Every structure is written in structure tokens, then in C-alpha cells.
Batch of 3 targets.
Target 1
Amino acid sequence: MWANGFKWMFLIIGTMIGAGYASGRELWEFFGAESGLAIMLFSFLFASSCFIILSISAKQQSSHYLPVLQEIMGKRLARMYDCMILIYLFSVTVIMLAGGGATLEVIHVPYWLGTVFIGGMVVILFLWDTRGMTSMNALIIPVLILFLLGVLIAFQSLLGFPIQFRVEQQHNWPSALTFTALNILPLIAVLSAVGKEINRKGEIWIASIGSGVILGGISYLYNESLLQVSGDIMLYEIPLFAILKHYPYFMVLVMSGLLWLAIYTTAAAGVFGLLSRMREWLKGPAWLIALLIVSIMAPLTTIGFSTLISILYPLYGVLNLYVLAAILLYPILHHRSIVK
């Protein structure tokens, strides 16, 4: 039970900790000053959402997200959100593949070769099907967490841990709702794909509480560290580098490598979500379907997606609030089915 619980926990964290999160950009955009309570609230909402999604997945013994969506929202709305999730996963994965290529340009690898490399690594992962995805997260995510925590704790100790929490100054709490909502679609897509592999309720408790506590703790520490360098963040495209300027150049290279791994885990999670849904229409080994998906995406990595994302993300932010509300209300409306 514990081993499986940690496996699902790392899958959740791997889906959440993408390049946007690991770089500090997402946290800085949503939180910032007066956000301690918001991050605590996010941790609770996130853990609750994971628990509900995993519980429904286990009950449905699902292999993709559509049965879970239908259970949460009804068949009519599920069709609309089915299309939304496909577009979301596709667009985000294309951006991750492009980001993986751009990141390797730092060490003078041509952009096209870097894109082919990360795409190839994603395809290779699915030679082992679902086990490849969960094993990769179990290997990479603890390393990402340890290095990120190490940098943040060392930075705070350098400053003498100037962290303060004053209840009267916690005015940014609504950000918890939008931040959780923006991350809910990939969670549904990925966690619904493993429903048939969940054996015990205890696995769900471990995965949900563990991921909520870890992500909440890292988010709080990361946000407080970014506040200490807020005057320099505008000078950096990646906020994490505003913290790393206090470290030797070697650490910048190490963390750049870890950012690439964060991009990789997000790209893999996107392909995993798409693959699990497309298996209803396509038959064949997982790696072959993954190769097809990545091959379709490859030409699109040369197109600028900033305009697409500037339209899609605000739209998802609004529409996802409804999904989040439906998930959180599910235990109230279906009490008997969620507690079994």
C-alpha cells in the first residue's frame, strides 16, 4: 500500500511540477506578497481534489479521463470538457517540447536537435507503458524536490530565515482558487488513467495528503524566497535565477538541468494523458501511439505559441473554476460513493 501510495504521489507531483512551477514563474504570477494563507488554502484544495479524482478513478476502474469527467459533470458537459482537455494537453505538450529544445541551446545543442531529443526521450519512456511513466516520476521527482528544497533552505538560512506570517496581511487568498483550477485539467487526465491500478483506499490517502503537504510546503518556501529578491525578478525571465545569483555558476547549470527534467516530466504527463484517451480509438503498443502523437506535434514546435497561450490560459482559468467546484462538491452530492 505504501509503495503504491508513494508511486501515485510522485505521479501527482510530476504532473504539477512543470517548467512553469519549477522556474518560479507560476508561483510569482499567482501569489507574491500577502499569500501565505492562499498557499495553505491551495494545499488543502489540491489534496482534496486529488483525493476525489483518485477515488472516482478507482471506483470506475478507469483507464482514461472520460468516465471520471462524466461522473463529475454529467455526459453533456463531459463532452465539452473532453475536447478542452485534448486541446489543453496537446498545446501544453507542444510548448514543453519546444521549451526542451530551447533549454538545450544553453549548451550549444541546435534547437531542432534538442526538440528531437526530448521527443525521443518521451517516446522511449512508453516502451514500458504506464509503468515507465510512474517509474520515471519515482526516480526524477525526489531529485527535483531535494535540489529545489536544498537551494531554497540554503537561501533562507543565508538571510536568517526572515519568514513572517501575519493573519491581517493575508489578502491574496482568492489566488488559491485560480491556481488550483488552472492545474486541475492535467490532474484529471493523468490520475484517471491509473484508476484500474489502484487497489486500496489507503493508497489514495497517502498520495493525496502527501502531494498536498509537499507542494504546499515547497510553494510557501519558494514564494517567501522570491519575495526576498522581488526587486530583481523583473531582470530575469526565470525567477529562480534571481535566487541563484547568490550561488556559484555551477549551481546555475545544475538547476538548468533540473528545469529541463521538469519540462520533460510535464511533456511526458501530457503525452500520457493524450495516449490514455486515444487508446479508445487507436490500437497498438503505447510507444507507437506516443511516437504518432510526438510526430504530429514536432512541426508545430517551430510556431510561436505565445498568442495561443495568451488566449487559452485565461479561458481555461475561468472554465476550470467550474470543474474545480464540481469536484469539491462531489463528496457532498455523492457521499456514499466517495466514502466506500
Note: Residues 129-159 form the longest helix (31 residues).
Target 2
Amino acid sequence: MSKVLYITANPKQENKSFGLRVGREFINDYKKLNKDDVIEEIDLFDTYVPMVDKDIINAWEKLASGTEFQNLKEEEKNKLAAFSSLTDQFINADKYVIVTPIWNFTIPAVMKAYLDTVCVAGKTFKYTENGPVGLLQGKKVIHVQASGGFFSEEPGKNLDFGTNYIRTIMNFIGITDYKTIYVEGMNQFPERAESFLDKAINNVDELVLSF
């Protein structure tokens, strides 16, 4: 039995988002094929995702110097507890389905903040004499990326700081089985939006079998 973490970062209602519709299609198809697996959902726009701010940094520095967790300031404890909870939740999953839009060539800010909770030295990667080594080998990621224009091919591909960034983070922490489903072009060609959606769903049908 595997545990799948379904991570979304889009404030829209599901029926109003092409990306979320494709993500739900993937999850529903996966459930049909893997009835015993556990699927846990996290909506980042409905979750407290602490930023790496002065409280988090101060807490890390205090703990590194020997301060006990209970002796941290209340704000430091609360933020660090929430941060660590997200880290542990990610580590405990086996597979990940991530759904994000492209906003101004990159991911929503809350997704960046979430990835900061995922990329943690000593938990998801470690430093060695030969450089950093990821600790989460053997896991899988499907990333559904929705965009009004086209980013899966040139010239837009060079401006894609969404899936390319998430892939870089995943590879860094040891997850190299990473595939992207592009849901794109809906704003550029609104009259073809449904056909673009159908194309993405066809990719779902192919990729879910090997996920």
C-alpha cells in the first residue's frame, strides 16, 4: 500500500480551474486502479504554510546552539511546529501529485513557501564531502501545470520557472521520477480551451497506469 500526497496551489474553485480539473481526473483514475492506497489532500491556499522568516531562522539557530524546543519564544515554537509538520507529512508519502498554475512565469508564492518546508537539510537531503545528496529516492511525482500560454516547448519553455523549478527541487532531494502534464494555451486560444483540456486528460490516462 502506498501513500499519495495530493498538493494543490490554486485559489480557484475546482470546476473553474483547468489544472485542478485535470488533477482531480488523475486522482480519481488512480483511486480506481489502486483501491488500497491512501490519498491525502492538501490545499496550500487553505493551509498555514509558514514563511522562512526571522522567527524560523532564530528558532533553528537556538536549537543548533542547544536550546530546548520548549524554551523557544511562543511565535517561534508555533511557526517551527507548523513548518516541521509539513516536512514530515511530505517525507511520509510515497508519491506526489502537484497541481499549480503558472503565474508570471513561475509558481504561486505559497507553493514556493511550501517547497521551503520540503527542502530541509538533514531531513530530505544531506551534505557530504562530495556535495549534497537527496534522501527521498524511490518516490514519484506527477506535476500538473496549467497556463494561459504555452510553456512545454520553445520559445515559452525558456520562460518556464514553474515545473522546471519544482523538478529541480525534487531532483535535489532525491526524487528523479518526475513527469509533467501540461494544461496550456487556454487564454491564448480560448476557443480551443476544451480541446487543450482533452489533450491533458489523454496524458492522464497514459501516465496514471505507470504511477
Note: The beta strands are 3-8, 38-43, 95-101, 125-128, 131-134, 140-147, 177-184.
Target 3
Amino acid sequence: ESKEMSSPQPLEEETYDMSGARLALTLCVTKAREGSEADLDALERMFQQLGFESTMKRDPTAQQFQEELEKFQQAIDAREDFVSCAFVVLMAHGLEGRLKGKDEKMVELEDLFQALNNKNCRALRAKPKVYIVQACRGEQRDPGEPVTGGHLVMITENTPETIPTYTDTLHVFSTIEGYIAYRHDQEGSYFIQTLVDVFINKKGPILELLTEVTRRMAEAEMVQEGEAKKVNPEIQSTLRKQLYLQ
């Protein structure tokens, strides 16, 4: 049969092996966050489409955020099969570096991120871990500027006998440090809805997909109390390879 021409796939050592189990944990405070059910529905659809075993917990307290992540880590380490990748979605009200549980108490994001690092989660050592955070990171609002440029950070690869404790992680925040995030009462948050749409309908390495999410969000106008606002996600990556979800 004739071979179709396709864009060259990167070399095996340059991509993460996604042939094993894909696991997802979503922790979502729905209390006083209208529209979060729409986000949960969209994420459920995305995880199904991308072949993830997905667990969703609604309305965790601050302490339960931590406990659920530790349970997730223990369950991953206890598995007999090969685990390829983990997604953690955290949705709540928040301030920079912290999320607010259902009980109004705060949990440190850094503590949540620690649970799956290369030291604390053996099964995910050198495997991709993606954190998606839909939460405010402060009170600031961005009215937007006429024109701005941007650049992407290139990632170089290096595979020695040991790896740093904090590699292979992607943190995707719905907004930049110090700023609020937006959520629609019926349609859910623009960030989660855009991310789901791109991840389901586009193919390519995850950083490329996230660039598309950022572009779409940057082009959109959020209208709040009659005034146009701009918002964009922020991506922090220590991935060593290309991560393909499709």
C-alpha cells in the first residue's frame, strides 16, 4: 500500500513513551464557583478521548487537597503495570501559590506539586507530570495593551544516569502571577474550555498545543462589569522530551 507523506516524527529518545497507563486526578471546589460543573464535564470528555483513567473529587477541604494527592501518588506507586503519564487538575479560588479549599482554608501549591516529583513518586520518575491550575493568582486585572511580542523558551535534553528531582513536570496556570482568572457562570472557565477543545481536536507536542491555547486566550476579550479585560495562561515546563497525547 502507498505510504502517506506525514511530518517526520521525532526520534524515540526525544519523545515520552505514552504506551502505558495514563492517570488523571481532578480536585475541584464547586462551592461558590458557578460554571465549574461545565469544566468538569469538559475535562471528563477530554480524559476519555485521550485514554486517561480519570478520578474526580468535588469540594475538597484544604487538607483533602493534600491527602487526595498523596493517595494518588501511593496508588500510582502501587500499580503493577507501566505508568506513562499523570495529569492533575486543580480548580478552586486562590491567591499566588495557594488554593482555597471548600473549608476556606489555604493549601500551598508547592506542597501539592511535591507529591509527584521524581523523589516522591517512583513510578513517575522521568515520566511526564502535568498540573493544570484553574485559580486566581491575585487580584490584578489586565486591561490589555495595543501590541506585544513574545518568545518561547526552548528545552534542551540531557539524559545522564541520574535526573534532577524536579524534571518532567509541566505546570499550566490559568493566569499569570498576581492576576485573577475568569469563569463564566454557565459555560465554565475560558481556560479549561479552550484547553479541552485544543487537546481533543489538535495533534502535536503538548507545548505546541499550549501555545495555541495561549494564542486563543490572548485574542479573546473577557468582558467584566462592562469592561474588556485580557487574560492569558502561564506555562512552566521542565519537560525533557516531547509529550504527545494523541
Note: Confidence is low (pLDDT under 50) at residues 148-156.
